Amino acid sequence: MTEPGFRPVGYLTSTKEGLRGERGAFYDYVTAENGVFIEAEGPFLAARVQVTKGVIRGLAPLEPALVLRYGPIPQYVFDLALSAMLIDPENERFVAVTWAGGYHISVPEQEGTAGAVVYEVVEDTVLELHSHGGMRAFFSG
After folding, report:
1. pLDDT of 2 higher than 70
2. Contact predicate 126/118, CB 8 Å
């Protein structure tokens, strides 16, 4: 049961004047001229993803967006993450990109096999990366 007045999900409309409606605690559905989007934000990033396309006259259009609050993650951080994953190239490995006054990598305790990896949750994670061992690359979220 949720508290009275607590809205986990918000419902917004995109107008020429900006977004109108009530925001939710976790994420928002946004109806726009060009479809429906989901928006969410946290301490490290804000994202907007289009979930369906359509034409809704009288509203303002939106575009997908991703904003990293502390700017782009430098290439050397990805290079370090790749190096950490190549320590065990036959098994899946997990690396977190974290924020603590700058971007860093964290390699927590983990148990990796050729087809899966189980790892400890890392605080202040901005981006989670994992390898697929000997398998080809694919989205496995």
Report:
1. no
2. no
